[in-house]
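Risk register update: the risk of archive-format incompatibility is retired. Evidence:
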Amino acid sequence: MRTLITATVSGILFGAGLALSGMMNPAKVIGFLDLFGDWDPSLAFVMAGAMIVAMIGYRIGRHRSQPAFDSTFHLPTRTAIDRPLILGAVLFGLGWGIAGLCPGPAIAALVTGSTDILIFTAAMILGIVGFRVIGPH
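Archived output:
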């Protein structure tokens, strides 16, 4: 139960941070990527803030034998930079640059009821399910 509560509070904080910073607005992301036009550096500040929080969390976590609300840490086991990782990163970046959204902000922005957000999120879910069905097993 503590894990569910922690996940819920974390999700609410994440969504609130995205809303407060304006990152649920695809135009902010597109503006950040428009280096030679009307460039908007605000996404860089949001990323820097997230990195600082993550660094603090990792530093605290390194000195613990187990997490506060789970029995073990769940860290990635794969470390190889291989073709699927690179292809996935390129596809993610292209989608992010075209739509101005990635999964976190898209899910948080569902509360706006925007048709564009609903279509994006439906397409994202269809892509995830499609990969699980036809992707490598």
